[in-house]
Amino acid sequence: MENLKPLSDFFAAIEKDFRISTTHIAIYAALLQLRIGKGFINPVEVFSRDIVSIAKISSTYTYIKCVQDLNDYGYINYVRSFKKTQASKIYFVDLQGS
């Protein structure tokens, strides 16, 4: 159940945030799933192609836009890699107090 706490905290934080769409939620959940699969590390290194597949979205552009939004809104810290062979880093923010 401890693994669900970050997702619960995220839902509590976005409850009144009109900027968050279902795509943002799908991407955050996919990022969290990947993080759990990698032993709950922070940061997690990700390739957009992996998250696009898990989140069931069809566009890398949509992924980049939504991850950048989540970064700008303070839900994650996103360090983008512009190299196809190097993963980007996603730092999860503690949302418990949000």
Description:
It is a single chain. The chain has one domain: Arc Repressor Mutant, subunit A, CATH 1.10.10. The protein has helices at residues 5-14, 22-37, 48-55, 60-72; strands at residues 44-46, 76-79, 88-92. The chain is an alpha+beta fold. A three-stranded antiparallel β-sheet has the order 1-3-2. The protein is globular, with a radius of gyration of 13 Å. The protein is built from four helices and three strands; from the N terminus they run ααβααββ. It starts with a helix and ends in a 6-residue tail after the last strand. The model has no long low-confidence stretch (mean pLDDT 91).
Set down the secondary structure blueprint:
Blueprint (H helix, E strand, L loop, with lengths): L4 H10 L7 H16 L6 E3 L1 H8 L4 H13 L3 E4 L8 E5 L6
Short description:
It comes from Flavobacterium nitrogenifigens. By secondary structure, this protein is of the alpha+beta class. Helices cover 48% and strands 12% of the residues.
